[in-house]
Amino acid sequence: MSLLSSTAPTKAAGPTSVGYDIYDMYDLGEFDQKGGRGTKYGTKEQYLELVKKAKEAGIISYIDAVLNHKYA
Label partner for 13 (CA 20 to 30 A): which of 27, 33, 43, 59? Predict the structure, then answer.
């Protein structure tokens, strides 16, 4: 069994953030805010394509999200 883990693919404090300092829990790279549209993982479409390709290859994807962490 293979696993693909990522931090929350949501908009974080900055473009190089790993995602634990969530700026917008609902922005997966769809909206132009915080200096751009994409997150560290690209746009929503790119992220969903990654998960789809991983699933096709038999890789289980999961998100390591700490939803109580917020960037203020």
Answer: 59
Task: State the pLDDT at residue 16.
Answer: 76
Rg (alpha carbons) of the chain, rounded to whole number: 12
**Domain assignments of the chain as residue spans, ordered by start:** 2-64
Is the pTM higher than 0.85? The answer reads no
- pLDDT of 11-63, one tens digit each? 888 777 877 788 888 888 899 988 888 888 889 999 999 999 999 999 999 88
CATH number, domain 2-64: 3.30.750.90
